[in-house]
Amino acid sequence: EDQVTQSPEALRLQEGESSSLNCSYTVSGLRGLFWYRQDPGKGPEFLFTLYSAGEEKEKERLKATLTKKESFLHITAPKPEDSATYLCAVQRGRDDKIIFGKGTRLHILP
Amino acid sequence: DTGVSQDPRHKITKRGQNVTFRCDPISEHNRLYWYRQTLGQGPEFLTYFQNEAQLEKSRLLSDRFSAERPKGSFSTLEIQRTEQGDSAMYLCASSWTEAFFGQGTRLTVV
């Protein structure tokens, strides 16, 4: 069964303390892996798409990487405004269905 | 603004009433997805369309839920005989490659 598992469920960091969020997946034919940011009461905001193992994407303090079984979202020197829920999703190759994980709630303390 | 638009943003309804939500996708996107999200959870897949064809409906959905996408443009999601367990955020996304989300419709069933 296609599945996306994110860990940890929640993470509290001090401002400037770098860390990584994990997304492990099983899917029958990966078309793409997406990362989103979601603020309370709002829709998810697109961050990155990764298509193949070894690929990396960067945006400001965020860097996403992909292997054949998992993806990492690295956060370097985070700021309080990076506090949000980060969602990982996979798009299945045979029919483009998109399946989400439960997310990681990130809280950056000033 | 050419993003995904959802209407209404908030809906309060009495148990047993029918409700309908609308989603206007980004105009050139051929795929449209509906998700449901409850507090602390990731988006749960409901159904999706490629143009006007509905490709899959979640087995978790009862027959009270129906969705349409006439002419491959906007989409509607109807919930008949609402129950308190239907209270959630209903999210719509459209895609050509990456999926972009609207701000959601928050449903409260009282």
Describe this structure in words.
The complex is a heterodimer of chains A (110) and B (110). Chain A has no helices and eleven strands. With 110 residues, chain A is mostly beta strands. In chain A, the strands form two sheets. In chain A, strands 2, 4, 5, 9, 10 and 11 form a six-stranded mixed sheet that branches. Chain A has a five-stranded antiparallel sheet with strand order 1-3-8-7-6, with no helix packed on it. Chain A is globular. The mean pLDDT of chain A is 97. Chain B is mainly beta and 110 residues long. Helices cover 0% and strands 52% of the residues of chain B. Chain B is built from no helices and eleven strands. In chain B, strands 2, 4, 5, 6, 9, 10 and 11 form a seven-stranded mixed sheet that branches. Chain B has a four-stranded antiparallel sheet with strand order 1-3-8-7, with no helix packed on it. Chain B is globular and about 40 Å long. The mean pLDDT of chain B is 95. Chain A binds chain B through residues 4, 6, 32, 34, 36, 41-46, 49, 87, 89, 91, 95-103, 105, and chain B through 4, 6, 31, 33, 35, 40-45, 48, 50, 55-56, 91, 93, 95, 97-104, 106.
How do you describe this structure in short?
The complex is a heterodimer of chains A (110) and B (110). Helix content of chain A is 0%, strand content 60%.
* Helix proportion range of chain A: under 10%
**Oligomeric grouping of the chains:** heterodimer
Please tell me what the overall shape of chain B is: globular
DSSP strand (E) fraction of chain B? over 45%
Number of strands of chain B: 11
How many helices of chain B?
Answer: 0
Number of helices of chain A: 0
Q: If you compute it from the alpha carbons, what radius of gyration of chain A comes out, rounded to the nearest whole angstrom? A: 13 Å
- Find the structural class of chain A using helix and strand composition: mainly beta
Sheet with most strands of chain B: 7 strands, mixed
What is the string of SSEs of chain A from the N terminus onward? EEEEEEEEEEE
Low-confidence runs of at least 5 consecutive residues of chain A: none
Q: Percent of residues of chain B in helical segments? A: under 10%
